[in-house]
Amino acid sequence: MAEKWIIGIDLGGTTTKLAFVNEAGDILHRWEIPTVTANQGEAILPNIAKSIEDELARVKREKKDITGIGLGVPGPVDMEAGVIYETVNIGWAQHYPAAGTLQKWTGLKVVIDNDANVAALGEMWKGAGKGSGEMVFVTLGTGVGGGIITGGDIVHGVKGAAGEIGHITVIPEGGAKCNCGKTGCLETVASATGVVRTAMAKLAACSSASAVKDLSAQCGSVTAIVVFDFANAGDAVACEIVEVTAN
């Protein structure tokens, strides 16, 4: 009898990462696909379902070998209803029935929670938080997220948003507008998109010689990883951008 697998999915604003995992938590096969957010994200779940079918065929396994899917989504969640209240970075309508919709596309049982929450659980189970029932987990990517664990359980809050640290206001006045509708959120500064925003503003006002400035002029923009790579190499302007982000 074939070993049962679970499918873990991390739905990000830019990339969706997927993996086949056994019941002991060992990652057996992983891959990723772009997150297509056009038209209110209508292609996201069909693309995930198609990708799962393709990868099952690639590794010569069938859906009957899969126990179910765990889906981490970027926003507050009603776990029992399988609904994500709001996704500010991928375009879904409010109260989107993500679990039921993906279940229809795949024919597999689907459980959802906030992406940072499930990442925190994974870290407590298999990672740096192993053995600890009290921890805070921070995710940095397209946005900023967080998962809070106390007594070995995730703190969800009334509407599933207890760990949404990315939307704490850190710039009370004059901050950039966040996708959530507020201004000055931590996410507008400390996320990958926040780093790019800071970089482009800094480079536009900069008159100093800089390799990262030259690259920006050549390509029209820079990425967060490029900024940090140049900072690690000692580029003074890139270091200033990182300093603004870190403070």
Describe the structure using short key phrases:
three-stranded antiparallel beta sheet, alpha+beta
Write up this protein.
35% of the residues lie in helices and 22% in strands. By secondary structure, the chain is α+β, with helices and mostly antiparallel strands. The strands form three sheets. A five-stranded mixed sheet has the order 3-2-1-4-7. It has a three-stranded antiparallel sheet with strand order 8-9-10, with helices on one face. Strand 9 (144-150) and strand 10 form a beta hairpin. It is globular. The model has no long low-confidence stretch (mean pLDDT 91).
Quick structural overview:
This protein has 247 residues and is an alpha+beta fold.
Can you list the strand order of the major beta sheet?
3-2-1-4-7
Termini separation comes to 55 Å
In this structure, how is the largest beta sheet organized? 5 strands, mixed
Calculate the mean pLDDT score and round it. 91
The ordered string of helix (H) and strand (E) elements is EEEHHEEEHEHEEEHHHHH
Overall helicity: 25-40%
Low-confidence stretches: none
Q: In what range is the share of β-strand residues?
A: 15-25%
Instruction: Tell me the number of helical segments per DSSP (H or I, 4 or more residues long).
Output: 9
- The gross shape turns out to be globular
Structural class: alpha+beta
Number of strands: 10
The quaternary structure here is: single chain
- Alpha carbon gyration radius: 20 Å
